[in-house]
Amino acid sequence: MNVENKTVIISGASRGIGRATALMLAHHGANVVVTARNADELTALEKEATEGHVRGKIVAVPGDVSNEADMANVVKTTLEQFHHIDVVINNAGYGVFKNIDEISATEWDDLMATNVKGTFLLTKAALPFLKSQRNGHIVVVASDVAKRTFAGGALYTASKYAQEAFTGALRKEVRPYNIKVTGVYSGLVDSSFHAEGHRQESRGSWLKNEDMAESMLFIVSRPAHVVIDEFMVHPLSQEY
Predict the structure, then answer these.
(1) Cα dist. 12→34, 92, 113, 131, 210 in Å?
(2) Which of 7, 137, 29 is nearest to 75 (CA)?
(3) Contact 57, 32 (CB under 8 A)
(4) Which residues are the active-site residues?
(5) What's the whole-model pTM score?
(6) CATH number of the domain that residue 115 is part of
(7) CA-CA to 125 of 20 to 30 Å: which in 3, 151, 174, 180?
């Protein structure tokens, strides 16, 4: 599980899986640049890491993943602070769950801008450096619904299918540069993703944010010659 002195960028890191992953990696000695739109929550995360005396460092760079200039700034700041990039974790995303005739065009555009365009823009911003150093690891946090559909999930599953397709094409493009690509497909997670909040009693058997953070740690700490192309993880209570 060695990530000592690795530099990691995580989007959607102000809460949930992204936040837990940032703390987990920093605890194990990685330097983590976290980005999200909520500057206050990012600052609180940065402060928690500092006061918690973790081995690595967390640096907050607020930004919107759907904004190309913001993602370019995240990469620029990372290189200024740590001079290299080892891992990029595309984690930002949210869900809208409605029947198709109830989804507005604005809801469609906004969700696609975060879940799909955001993955593209952060990846694109980091790629020139990763290619130049001929090394790196890009992780795309999708969902098990990148592999299946359900009623009321047309918009969200479409975004996750798009992420899976993007990840697959990216994997083929960058392997000649010695860059790893991993798609992460999780089942039910008790996180802030769900509108009704988290830590509900009915979710006692779901995956926790910390379970996902441990999974991320495992994925990005494999030896140089090992790549996990796809990582599917569910709570035992969930059928798949």
Answers:
(1) 8, 4, 13, 24, 15
(2) 7
(3) yes
(4) 156
(5) 0.95
(6) 3.40.50.720
(7) 3
What value, to the nearest 5°, has the Cα angle with vertex 157 and ends 152 and 161? 160
Q: How far apart are CA 42 and CA 56, in angstroms?
A: 16
In a domain, 1, yes or no: no
Structure-block tokens of residue 193: 């993703």
Q: Which amino acid is at 210?
A: E
Tens digit of each residue's pLDDT (9 = 90 or more) over 200-221: 556 889 999 999 999 999 999 9
Number of domains into which the chain is organized: 1
Contact 34, 13 (CB under 8 A): yes
Distance CA 57, CA 31 (A): 5
Instruction: Give residue-wise pLDDT tens across range 118-156.
Output: 999 999 999 999 999 999 999 999 999 999 999 999 999
Q: Classify residue 109 as left (phi > 0), alpha (psi -120 to 50) or beta.
A: alpha
Tell whether 88 is covered by a domain: yes
Is residue 206 in a domain?
Answer: yes
d(CA 182, CA 220) in angstroms, rounded, equals 9
Distance CA 235, CA 22 (A): 22
Domain that holds residue 174: 7-233
Tell me if 240 is assigned to some domain. no
Q: What's at 5, amino acid-wise?
A: N
